[in-house]
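anyone seen this seq b4? input:
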Amino acid sequence: MFLLDTAASTGNGGLFGMLGIYAIFIVILYFIMIRPQRKRQKETEAMQSNVKIGDWVLLNSGMYGKVVNIVNECLIVEFGTNKSIMIPVLRSQIAGVEEPDLSQKNTDPAAIEPTDSIVGDDIVEDDLDAYDQKILEKGEKKGFFKKKK
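predicted toks r here
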């Protein structure tokens, strides 16, 4: 009888211990995955519900548009600069409220260095450095290049 009592108590302790490990795992999983996702979801829903006429919105498809009218859960969004393309969009399809960056980046033509498109990064085609000579010699052996004159 004494052996049966100890075996039964060990089994119950093992069961409670295993359930405790599962409970700890679920709590950790909640704080790492579920809670932050719910927080992000609430922030997104708040942002989508606070959209008003005149706001620039970024849709899930990657397109920017300006809200021109709101009808229940549909927003009438104007796309393009010709002001003739208006499409109804569900609130849930809004990824963000932000204005697109339409500024053009000016590149200075003097900042772009010309490169030799045949071999290496030489500015002048006639001046070949040692590396370019080595590449040309290998190419001649395999029949890829013809030697420059």
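The mean pLDDT is 77. The chain has three domains: 1-50, 56-97, 113-149. kinda curious what u guys think
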